[in-house]
């Protein structure tokens, strides 16, 4: 089966559930499915499993030897997992502990890559991770041939919290959450854009290599997205949430061609913002639940929806989760969004002058009784580059239900491509509770 869009190169996409080889044909209707090619071993969010909960993947392409490329995935309190293109684990990195047993432990939420960061007179690729537990970034140098594993922690020891003033605030966990990286082509400087858990704030942090070969960071500026919205009927709507929580952002991606940040406010929709956090944000699409009133129930810890006034969008079902780009050599391409509420991926035109118009949607469905599809997908990553033969790539875990809350790992799905093109896509999924 194939997707509705036309992609002229091979695309590897990952969800914390699976990776898929996708053909994106034009001129089709309805929602098609693609099927996974491989999946990683499941992770378990309990004490026996190390409280590992798959969340967000990034694809590192080894340009010298594409067959030795890697998928780097966060596992919450379980730290980081690194996989090869056959979905085999090649490294596991624990999240750091908190300062004391009474403090929150490290909890890795999102990951993205910076290519060619200058470190001590050389350039290196690095993975940047949001540590929600400690409210910090952690930076890992990537060396595919390093004995002991390809990732090495090079975070500056003096790195400060991203949002919190002290440890008491860190323990409240309004901390670093979603993350996307950006290298400004005009200046060569590299940044991380980081969202704050249970708040609408996004911070721009400049990455600062040190003479010691480590990487520190500094806050440049912040931007607060709206938490309430004026409806066409004059009413004001605020997404229902636990008291004290605001509609947060998690999934983010920056288009490197023009420095556009796309940010998914989970219960609201997708925003288009200048990556420097200047100018006025534009809401390019809304979730279907946009404008629906809700009442929070303290007993069930859930929101009971009221009558839908009909102000929502048509394409996304809350939550909006992982965002990723499919880039094409001619500058075209697609913004893909994980529509967690209906287990689909929604594709938008990458071009701003086309106003990021909606293109189509697809699902990643089970290939067999042992090779799962993607459900409740959280983070997502895509790479549009020819994969090595045989076509394949790992995916990250998806949420599945078991006595120990298993997460189905990422998968690579394969779909029959049209004669003129082939592509691969992957994504990552996890349950939406306490993401």
UniProtKB/TrEMBL annotation:
What are the boundaries of the region Disordered? 378-435
Q: Per the record's keyword annotation, is Signal included, yes or no?
A: yes
Q: Which GO terms describe its molecular function?
A: hydrolase activity
Which superkingdom? Bacteria
Domain BPP positions: 24-415
Look up the signal peptide feature and give its range: 1-28
Locate the compositionally biased regions of type Low complexity: 393-435
Keywords for this entry? Hydrolase, Signal
> One Pfam match, by short name?
Phytase
* This protein's name: Hydrolase
Naturally occurring in which organism (per UniProt): Streptomyces hydrogenans
